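User: Good morning. I'm curious how magnesium ion would be positioned relative to this chain. Could you predict the structure with it bound?
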Amino acid sequence: MSEKSSKTVDIKSSWDRTLSVLRAELGEATFRSWFKHIEFGELSEKKLLLYVPTKFMKDWIHTHYSDRILAILKNDNIPVSSIIFELQKFKVSKDSEDSNAQKTVKNSKPAASSKFVTNENGDHNSMLGAPLDPNLSFENFVVGGSNELAYAAAKRITEVENVSFNPLFLYGGVGLGKTHLMHAMALEIKKNWPERKVLYLSAEKFMYQFIKALRFKDTMSFKQQFRSVDVLMVDDIQFIAGKDSTQEEFFHTFNSLLDLNKKVILSSDRAPSDLEGFDERIKSRLSWGLVADILPASFELRYEILKQKSAELLKTNNGHHTLDDSVLIFLAKTIVSNVRELEGALNKVVTFSNIMNKKIDVELTKTVLKDLLRSNNKRITIDEIQNKVSNYYNINVDDLTSSRRLRSFARPRQVAMYLAKKLTSRSLPEIGRKFGGRDHTTVIHAVKKIDQLKSENEKFDEDVSVLTQIITSS
Ligand code: ADP
Ligand code: MG
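Assistant: Good morning! Here's the predicted structure, ligand included:
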């Protein structure tokens, strides 16, 4: 009995190796087309039994790949002389046994397939999930105070078999590294436990899959597919706010996975308690596990990220010109919004330097990034402008949006509209709306009027300059 099972394990691990070889030889796409759904049956009397889903596949694999499969197995000293293909629907159900055998084999050699880490178990991910970007790894993630907790939690999930928290809920503003950490976790879990089914996808894709299942009256298999994973990772779950049936389905999936002690990892742009349009029970259950926030990066972290990314860029771009530290410091100081924009700015600078074939300094950086810097200097809001302007002129904010025509309100109002146009990217109608629902022509008029006054009146021009300073420098 024990001898038989160790044999099963032998041939099974040989079969797994065969698949790896085929994958390497055929390339991922071809491999998946033919071998994704193939299932190992058994080896008996030198005959290898394989289960395939369709007759067409059976014939194709038989004609095209039989010899190669036999050769690889023989090379592995497996006594096999022929292959029998059988349709899966004729298979006697012994699924649980199979998956146990698989576990034993794979556990004994963890990370053996790390080369194919993005594709390992990728059958699951490819149908339902999103592809993983190998560059979004832990190694490429720079840790600082603002993302320390999220990073530590993410790391822990990939290192410890049974972490004490579940789900893990990561949240933070756009471009701060949530998706990066999600990919890093998925990649690492697959590497450390190749047998685990890891499914990573965006909430949007989850919804899309669900709607598709509804349309094709296939919700049973939808449910089953999602509930059979070991790790479910859903990115940007704020997306399903207010989408009731999707949310309901997500909640059921989420609950049943938690009940089975499977891992659930979620990300969102805000904390569970701030998720508007979410059912209260869901919000509360989302925060049962570990909730970790990612804050905007500090100057030091932004600088570290730039240092790492510029080193990579220079390596991969055959850049001839290194970047001065002063440029990195300048970028880290100026681009405060998020890491994505920081990366974008750096890319631009490096590309420019390559194209122009010259070393770039801070002055040149300013020119290259002129537009970006203007909008990035700080995201100025109309509310902020209204506050500062009313403060400056010593009136109430309400007076700026009211319909009162008193000169002492009308002029500051025009100044505020003018600044809203100059310092934000809001459209004229948007600005009008923010000023008590005024028409866009009123905004145009205000802008013209202020321009005119500025040119006529030095004191007034000075006032507007000072205000601009106050708003942009705070
Ligand atoms: P989010 O999902 O939070 O909107 P992403 O994970 O997509 O943000 O991050 C945006 C970009 O910034 C990505 O290219 C990512 O690699 C990079 N990034 C974010 N945080 C870091 C970090 N701490 N270290 C390195 N790169 C980072
Ligand atoms: Mg994201």
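The radius of gyration is 30 Å. The beta strands are 39-44, 47-52, 82-87, 168-172, 198-202, 231-235, 263-268, 290-294.
Let me know if you'd like a different ligand tried.
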